[in-house]
Amino acid sequence: MAAPAWRGWLRVLPLVALVALSVGLLVGGITRWFSLDQLLASRAYAKAWVAEGFWRAYACAYLAYVGTVIVSLPVSVVMTTLCGFLFGPVAGALVSISAATTGAVVVFSVGRTAAGEVLLRRAGSRLGRLAEGFRRDAFSYVMVLRLLPVFPFWMTNLAPAIFGVRLRTFALATLIGISPGAFIYASAGAGVETVVAAHQAAKEACVVAGGIACDAALSLRAVVTPQLIATLLGLGALALLPVAWRRWRGNPG
Hints:
Blueprint: H1 5-10, H2 13-27, H3 36-41, H4 43-52, H5 54-70, H6 76-87, H7 89-122, H8 125-136, H9 138-147, H10 153-162, H11 167-190, H12 192-208, H13 220-223, H14 226-250
Helix pairs in contact: 4-5, 5-6, 5-7, 6-7, 6-11, 7-10, 7-11, 9-11, 9-14
Transmembrane segments: 12-34, 54-73, 85-110, 138-155, 167-186, 228-245
Keywords: Cell membrane, Membrane, Transmembrane, Transmembrane helix
Membrane topology: Multi-pass membrane protein
């Protein structure tokens, strides 16, 4: 006997709940608590808190970072920068990488369990072919999605889940793919006074220009430099080389 249709849709509820929670937090303005103004204003207190108990602070930072990834808050750059400031470039990058990977795996698992089969079953043949091609070169594609800072993190977590990528492949490609950016942002955080100076300059320029959101003046443009973009684009191209090689071998003529 076929399972009732409502049971299939019941599996989608975890993803719906996660999306509803994310939207609610964003509408409620939670991201203002992750502005660099808020975080840098309390940097002396944060440093003292870390000095009182390094591993406690390290665990709290890990859990907080995992939470922001699970609810898909667009604050990963700020979080990684903060971790670099609190724990140094290496320890800060490592906690960021592990937390971001953990959160991504949670979202991936929810997406695969809840929606993957339902969406693919109801999708057309074109999406089915796209999913098959994505699975065939899943590691390279996930690496590219992680290396290039142009795709929302939630999209790079859910798309591989919907396309049926294996969890182990997704987790490993995510861990490797986010590592270069994590070390760069954590290093920027370790030299936080440079970040503060950049933020202050951006804020003053915003005020002079008559801007209305000057507290958020330090955007990705100030942190993601052209050199960083070029580096990540180069790494993304390297990640696609195995795909290009297989395509060329399969079509030599």
